[in-house]
Amino acid sequence: MKLSHMDDKGNAKMVDVSAKENTKRTAKAYGRIEMRPETLELIVKNGLPKGDVFSTARIAGIMAAKKTWELIPMCHNISLTHVSVEFKIDRDRSAVEIFTTASSVGKTGVEMEALTAASVAALTIYDMAKAVDKEMVIADIYLLMKSGGKSGDWKRGSDEK
């Protein structure tokens, strides 16, 4: 079975995964949003008028992961078993690092769900802090690892599966 988003005529299509086995699948992604040091301190001290940035960004990331199939063309609607969004403060870079995990038992991977969660969490942080810092930069959204499925395990920095 050829897994492709293109049909025999070169037209876009959703991949048919019906013949694939259900397996446990996990993906982890990373994102970062850089800002002025005073903006970072306002976020850390919960001093922004819009409220608790981390709680709101966490919920937004989780909700986005659950709706990835509505946002990214030809993604499958996946029943997620777990999504997490965690934050780490990097004062040296004046940034918030975002770490997401998405898991499922199914026929297709969850890389896009983890990446979408990181992206939307970063966008939510931007939205909540833009009144004090419009020059924030969302940077380096990428996949850290994936496990499960026919292609096996992969980890960033390793050419091996």
TrEMBL record:
InterPro entries: MoaC, MoaC_bact/euk, MoaC_sf, MoCo_biosynth_MoaA/MoaC, Mopterin_CF_biosynth-C_dom. It is an enzyme of class 4 (lyase). Pathway: Cofactor biosynthesis; molybdopterin biosynthesis. Residues 14-149 form the Molybdopterin cofactor biosynthesis C (MoaC) domain. Keywords: Lyase, Molybdenum cofactor biosynthesis. Signal peptide: none annotated. GO terms for biological process: Mo-molybdopterin cofactor biosynthetic process. CDD domains: MoaC_PE. The keyword Lyase applies. Gene3D superfamilies: Molybdopterin cofactor biosynthesis C (MoaC) domain (3.30.70.640). One of its GO terms (molecular function) is cyclic pyranopterin monophosphate synthase activity. Substrate binds at residues 74-76, 112-113. The active site is at residue 127. Coiled coil: none annotated. NCBIfam families: moaC (TIGR00581), PRK09364.1 (NF006870). Homohexamer; trimer of dimers. Belongs to the MoaC family. Catalyzes the conversion of (8S)-3',8-cyclo-7,8-dihydroguanosine 5'-triphosphate to cyclic pyranopterin monophosphate (cPMP). PANTHER family: CYCLIC PYRANOPTERIN MONOPHOSPHATE SYNTHASE (PTHR22960:SF29), MOLYBDOPTERIN COFACTOR SYNTHESIS PROTEIN A (PTHR22960). This is Cyclic pyranopterin monophosphate synthase. It comes from Kosmotoga olearia (strain ATCC BAA-1733 / DSM 21960 / TBF 19.5.1). The lineage of its organism: Bacteria, Thermotogati, Thermotogota, Thermotogae, Kosmotogales.
